[in-house]
Structures are given as C-alpha cells and as structure tokens.
Amino acid sequence: MQKRESLRSDSDRDFDFKPEVGCLSIVVLGASGDLAKKKTFPALFNLYRQGFLLSDEVHIFGYARTKISDEDLRNRIRGYLIKDNDASSAHSEDVSKFLQLVKYVSGSYDSDEGFQLLDKEISEYEVRKNSTEGSSRRLFYLALPPSVYPSVCRMIKRNCMNKSDLGGWTRIVVEKPFGKDLESSEKLSSQIGELFEEPQIYRIDHYLGKELVQNLLVLRFANRFFLPLWNRDNIANIQIVFREDFGTEGRGGYFDEYGIIRDIIQNHLLQVLCLVAMEKPVSLKPEHIRDEKVKVLQSVLPIRDEEVVLGQYVGYRDDPTVPDNSNTPTFATMVLHIHNERWEGVPFILKAGKALNSRKAEIRIQFKDVPGDIFKCHKQGRNEFVIRLQPSEAMYMKLTVKRPGLDMQTVQSELDLSYKQRYQGVPIPEAYERLILDTIRGDQQHFVRRDELKAAWEIFTPLLHRIDNGEFKPLPYAPGSRGPAEADELLSQAGYVQTHGYIWIPPTL
C-alpha cells in the first residue's frame, strides 16, 4: 500500500484549505445497517488501500443501537470488503489491517449517554495520537433514516464536537432522501441548520461522485468543439435516463413511501440536468459551481400534467409490504423546460423506471436535423452524443458515415470512448470513495447546498402532492417492457426521433 503525501488533489489550488495537522476520526452512524456494510465501509477500505487513509492518523468508529462487540462488527463487514475476483493474500492482509482500525460503540440515537461514550472513545484515540486539542478532525457519516437526523445531530452537537480554534473541524454527512417535499425538506434543513453551519453539512448524492458525471464539466468547458454546439440552436432535445431491470426486491415498503420521482428523478437525474445545462462557472471553486446549478433550477418552468407519464409495473402490489391500493409510481417520464437564453424551447426529458427491459443510466443529447439533406439520410436518425453513466461507462457520438463499398450509401456509426478499452487497468473509483474523500478534503463541489435543495423541491412538490392525493394515476406496464406505451408517445411529442436498426455495442478488449 503506497502512502499518499497529501489528501489534496490537483484542482485544490482553486480553493483554500486550512492546515490539517490533527488525527482523523470517522464515525459511521448506523454501522450495522445495509448502507454502511455495502457502501460506506467498502468505500473507506478502498481509500485506505489506495493510501488516502493512513493507519497512523485515522480511526474509524461504528455506532448503532445493536449491542455487538468490535469483532462482531468487523466480521459483519469483512465479507463486503473481499471481492470474489481479488482474494489475494495481499488483499486479505489489507482487510485485516483495515479492520483493526474499526471500533464499535453501542447506544441510542436520542440520548446523551451513548454519544458521551462515543466522545470518550474518540477523545482517548486523539490523546493516544498526541493530537493537540482543537486540531483533530471529526467526520460523522449518518447512514441512517432521515427521521433520526435531527436527534442525532443534536446529540453530536451537544456531546461530540471538536474544538475548531486550531484548524480542527467537525463535519456531518447526511444521505438522501432529504425530506419528502418542500415543507419537510425545509423543516429538516432548518433543524440541522440550527446546529451546524452550512460549510459543515455535506448532503451526499452518490450520482455526483460517478466518474462520467464528474467528467461533464471537463467535457463541456475544456473542449472547443462542444462550446458553440451546446445550445438551443443546435440541440433538439436532451434525455437523462435511469433504467433498472428488476423491481423493488424486498424494499417495497420503503420504496412505496417515496416512489420513483423522489427516489431517482428529484435528486439523481436533476443533479445531472444541472451539470448538463449550467453556464460556465467563474472558477472551479465549489461555491461558484453550485451558484450556477442553482440558477438552472430557478429557471425551470412548472411541470405540466400533459408532459408527465407515470407507470406502475404489474405485480408491484403483490409485495406484502406494499398497500393493495398503492398509487406509487415505479416509472415516470416527464419533460422539463428551462426558461433562459441558452435552452429556451429545448425539452429536457427525465425518465426513470424499475422492472424494465434493460439496466442503464445515460445522458442522450440529440442534435437537430442537418439542413438541406442532400444524402436523404434523415430517416436513419439524428446525430447524438451519448454519455453512458452505467454499466460499461462510455461516451460515444452517433454520426452518419458512408457505408464501405462502391455505392454511395450512408449508415449510422459512432466515435467511441469506452473506458474499459481505453483505460485498461485503470480502476474507476466508486462514487462513495470520491465523495467521502471530498468531505475529508473540505471540498463541497459535489454536494447539495441548501438553496439548491429548496429549488429542486419547488419544481416537483406540486406534482408529488397530486400523486399522493390520488389525483394522478400511474398506468400499468408489464415487467420487462419499455414501460407504458404513452411514455414513448410523450417522447415523440417532445421531438425525440428514435433511431431504428442501430444498436451500440460496447467494444471488446
């Protein structure tokens, strides 16, 4: 394992950092839950293995209500750290060393006693590391339901804060969903905001940590040939799509409380929309980037009912945890319009669904027809720039070329950048790895700011309330299909031209 000289990245020169001389304590609250086991601890382990978390300056604490020992917690998470394709002795040794950094504290989420014990354990670790009081760093990751955020944050504020007068800090990472509508989100923000300053709060949306999402600003603002094309004069429509080929699979009760719009569209897809549509920021400083994202959200027009199609897959209500009369959509396609100079008249189509015929997440930018089509090739399809977020990360441009041969026949092909082929042997980091590292660095660029969250909920709350009140009904669709046929009709009405006979095939190594 190679030791990194610094936690700073190449772009860190664009914003200021306080010197970080004290030891680092990472507290995973909800340590016995699925999120912590499957995402948080594996991300921490990968950072450790790559040398970003050093054993002589970091300690990890798990906190939950379950009464188990340190070794019990280590055994619970061990299996999620060892991958089937990497069971080497070196990997196993790294796992063992990492798990020795993990300590468990049991306590409730709404009483002082457990958090006082947690603070005692953290303080003893800081003393052992000879950290000067006020210089240590404390990161609290809330892998918990949002309902307990307020009480947990009160307990942290009351019992576990680090003095920050000598460069130390206390930071809070909260997971989505951030409320269920504008009112509940604002209430939650106010409760947390009364306890912590905005620079201390990191609202995590893991989509912002995905490699291809991180690439959007570079693609848009570092490549000359995109700059003149990225506007209403050249782009016909933009699709941002999330598809899963499985249903709720045991999470029906949780999912039914939120639905596909709250679970995927209002946060993940809307965040991607902001990065696709925003203007160039003044610099790469986090606040400059987040300022531009907020401007996009504030320019989105109210959603019209006739530009929304909802669906619910047949069999969804068979889940015993789902009410028999559930009105919760498992599929949604909607058209958003951005009222500004760059995007006036360009439909932004957001589409998400479960139990569909494929699994993928992508951004599809469709350009307008070539004027004066002398090759008579419009029927073959338009030029498109596709950014495939998952699986098989790739970027490719669909364009019309001459078919090889003696005849002048045209065909659609692609210019392709497939990551597995182009960057062989280069690991693509998991989103949680990147975002946790950003939190330690103090870089809030890829986290959701409070006013951004408020603007996002303002867009969707009226529609969500109509669905909750039963005024907007989802259409049934068969599992394994494309979703309701009405969704494809909506895409056509929005001006999307589907390419028939063309299939993108990921290159083989």
List descriptors.
15 strands; nine-stranded mixed beta sheet; G6P_DH; alpha/beta; Rossmann fold; 509 residues; Dihydrodipicolinate Reductase, domain 2; six-stranded parallel beta sheet; NADP; EC 1.1.1.49; disordered N terminus; 2 domains; 14 helices; oxidoreductase; glucose metabolism; globular
Q: Architecture of the largest domain, CATH level 2?
A: 2-Layer Sandwich
How are the strands of the biggest sheet laid out side by side? 14-13-12-11-7-10-9-8-15
CATH-defined fold name of the largest domain: Dihydrodipicolinate Reductase, domain 2
Major beta sheet summary: 9 strands, mixed
Q: What is the CATH homologous superfamily assignment of the largest domain?
A: Dihydrodipicolinate Reductase, domain 2
Domains counted in the coordinates: how many?
2
Termini Cα gap:
28 Å
Listing every helix as H and every strand as E from the N terminus to the C terminus, the arrangement reads EHEHHEHEHEHEHHEHHEEEEEEEHHHEH
The Cα radius of gyration reads 24 Å
Q: What structural category arises from helix and sheet content?
A: alpha/beta
On the 0 to 100 scale, the average pLDDT is 86
Low-confidence stretches: 1-20
Strand content: 15-25%
Number of helices: 14
Please provide a written account of the structure:
This protein is α/β, with parallel strands linked by helices. It has two domains: 24-175, Rossmann fold (3-Layer(aba) Sandwich), CATH 3.40.50.720; 208-426 and 462-494, Dihydrodipicolinate Reductase, domain 2 (2-Layer Sandwich). 34% of the residues lie in helices and 20% in strands. It has 14 helices and 15 strands. The strands form two sheets. It has a nine-stranded mixed sheet with strand order 14-13-12-11-7-10-9-8-15, with helices on both faces. It has a six-stranded parallel sheet with strand order 3-2-1-4-5-6, sandwiched between helices. β13 (394-402) and β14 (410-418) form a beta hairpin. α4 (112-128) crosses α5 (149-159). The protein is globular, with a radius of gyration of 24 Å.
